[in-house]
Amino acid sequence: MQATRSGLMNGMAGVAIFSGSLPATRLAVTGFDPVFLTVARAAIAGGLALALLLALRQKRPASGDLLPLAVVALGVVVGFPLLTAYALETVTSARSVVFIGLLPLATAIFGVLRGGERPRPLFWLFSGLGSLLIAGFAAGQGLGATSTGDLLMLAAVLVCGLGYAEGAALSRRLGGWQVISWALVLSLPVMAAVLVLWLPQSFAGVSPAAWGGLAYVSLFSMLIGFVFWYRGLAQGGIAAVGQLQLLQPFLGLTLAGLLLGEEVSPLMLAVTTGVVGCVAAARKFAR
């Protein structure tokens, strides 16, 4: 019970941090190219992760952990940031965060495939209901039309779900913050090289808001959030804690309203209540 409670608390902290990722990315892409933004955030976080690992004298991963770490890096260090950055050039922050509601299903499915978890059938029922609530909300708000940005967000959700599940399985051996740190360090040479190649000639036209967005996604989205998130998944289970992601779209929409001036409707609050119920029910049948 203590491990489950601690897992939920850590998982919720991670979700709260990640909820600001897409609004912050939306701000960042107003001043930075998506490729530059992706490699810059990875390089900044990678340098900090390397310093942290060296300062705390962490043992290097075993050779058998390198391929799973590469999967984590491709999913959450490269794939999700790059795909969402391109998506947010063409869709609004509100539209994009709704797709994040599909992450619990993606994480749970990859958790079954990669982590060996076997949630009960009712878990899938309530998980599906929660996702349907989000889909219904999207359709009701006019967010359901297919576009290039939507397809990019769907792809981002899939690669992120894989990275989450793979990282959670690894964190049971390496530790939560160590997983994301080693994944960042593993990708650091490539990210640093691309950063040099993609460096703009001038940053004169970049607004303070864009710089703030870059700082947030580099420090919080890319590193600090994962410290809490992977620890939570390892303590409470991939399927159970993963359901907390159902709350992320609505936290993200709230931040989008505060930061970007988007409307937070009463319908969003009503649907959030339903989603919270689905999260609670899915948790009960996750194991």
Q: How many separate structural domains? A: 1
**Major sheet:** none
Which of globular, elongated, flat, extended, rod-shaped describes the shape? Answer: globular
Quickly give the structural class: mainly alpha
Helicity level? over 70%
Structure notes:
The protein is an all-alpha fold and 287 residues long. The protein has one domain (2-284). Helix content is 78%, strand content 0%. It contains 13 helices and no strands. Helix 1 packs antiparallel against helix 10 (208-236) and helix 3 (34-55) crosses helix 9 (176-197). The chain is globular, with a radius of gyration of 18 Å. The two termini are 13 Å apart. The model has no long low-confidence stretch (mean pLDDT 85).
